[in-house]
Amino acid sequence: MPAAAAVTEPTPVPVMTPTPAPPSFGALAGRWYRLNQDSLRATAIGVISLAAFLLVWHLLTTYRVVFFVRFTNVPSPLAVYASFTKAIHDPKFLLHILLSCRRIFFGFSLAAIVGVLLGLIMGRFKLVHEIVFPVAEVLRPIPAIAWVPMAIMLWPTNEQSIVFITFLGSFFPILVNTLHGMSLVDPVLVRAAQCLGARERSIFREVYFPASLPHIFTGLTIGMGVAWVSLIAAEMISGQYGIGYFTWEAYSLVQYADIALGMIAIGVLGLGSSLLIRGAGQLVMPWRAK
Q1: What span, in angstroms and rounded, lies between the C-alpha atoms of 209 and 117?
Q2: d(CA 190, CA 198)
Q3: pLDDT digits (tens, 9 = 90+) for 170-207
Q4: Rounded to 5, what percent of the chain is helix, strand, coil?
């Protein structure tokens, strides 16, 4: 009998799945807009608000409006812009800004370190709280401008006294908010950490500090604003350089445009400092980012 022919199965043909086409530019733009819709809306409203403010300012100063408040001597936005274009080419104006920023950096950094650490210790140990809190509450209501004569007597140079006043201005908001954050820590979390064998250092690092971070950064933000207020007051009274001294000198020389320029520079610097703190807070606390 002839041998049976071997049956060969047909080789399967691979099915080629079509690769998806890359999204078009319009689709990517629409997706980006949906993800950033809230921030874009806030930015647009902010730009419109600033433009409206400048328009009202221009109209009030152009027509010399007198309605309870006198705008007869207030410089116009164009005059302030002309002063700005002149000032940015003046090394002395840039020196004023740099010195103010340096004073803020040293004074606020020292206040943040001391205020946060002292607030954590006071919130954890009752005896320390009972010793330090009454003294802090007596000193806290004293305005920064009242400290200027005492700071001049305490420190050998004006630079050190100004940094000291800046430190005092930002220290108390940081301390109070840190204490408030420590008081709101859930005791159940502390007892759970103790039951798991955590030591005091670990409880501080893993329980108290993370739970207090939102209030700590609130205190840092408030403290930065008060630090600028304290710095400007100190520079106007006892300083020889700084944006506060620049503004006061412009008033003494009846240079109205420079007065407005100094005020705007203070506002912009304060806003930038607060934005830096908020950005640091979002990096440290990503779970609170919206």
Answers
A1: 10
A2: 9
A3: 999 999 999 999 988 888 888 888 888 878 788 888 88
A4: 75, 0, 20
- As a whole number of angstroms, the distance between CA 100 and CA 217 comes to 22
Distances (CA, A) of 205 to 114, 150, 220, 222, 266: 17, 38, 19, 24, 37
The fold for domain 77-288 equals MetI-like fold (1.10.3720)
Phi, psi of 69 (to 5 degrees): -105, 135
The strand pairing partners of 70, in sequence order, are 66
Of residues 137, 124, 112, the one with CA closest to residue 226: 112
Q: What is the pTM of this model?
A: 0.82
> Taking the domains of the chain in order of start, what are their residue ranges?
34-70, 77-288
Contact 195/172 with Cβ under 8 angstroms?
Answer: no
CA dihedral 239, 241, 242, 247 (to 10 degrees): 80
Distance between CA 92 and CA 109 in Å, rounded?
26
Q: Which amino acid is present at 177?
A: N
The per-residue pLDDT for range 102-150, each reduced to its tens digit, is 999 999 999 999 999 999 999 988 899 999 999 999 999 998 888 888 9
CA distance 118 to 114: 6
> Is residue 196 helix, strand or coil?
coil
